[in-house]
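Morning. Coffee machine broken again, so started the prediction first thing and wrote up yesterday's gels while waiting. Chain of 141 residues, entered below exactly as on the submission form.
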Amino acid sequence: MDYIGTSDKVEMRPEIKACFHAFPDEVKTTLLNIRSMIFDAGRRTPEVGVIEEVLRWGQPSYITPKTKAGTTIRLGQSKAGPTALFVHCQTTLIADFRSTFPDDFTYEGNRAVLIEDLSSEKTSILELMIKRALTYHLCKT
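Came back before lunch.
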């Protein structure tokens, strides 16, 4: 497997790059910003370990294969159209964030946060979600 380290500039494999380029420009820009947030969160959270960028269900996805600390994060568009950050539907991540931040985002069931705009306030909240997803298996109660 081709593991991605925690260098400041994360290389993007060709199949991942092609996937991002298939999105409309506005969506692509938001998704690339979220991608950076994922790698930044990994760098700031040593227990996450190496983050691997892969394709899952045709979407850019982020896993923690060595530590298995996190649940998979996928990036894409929801069926409704907005940019979305997806997590495994059997986790409590979306329910937890929906109860804590009910008015900051729209949620799609237990699987996605829909992102209409990424203001600085929303970026801070989304960073919390990303860190929680990357450490999900370490924090389960």
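Residues 14-139 form a domain with the Aspartate Aminotransferase, domain 1 fold (CATH 3.90.1150). Going to sketch it on the whiteboard this afternoon.
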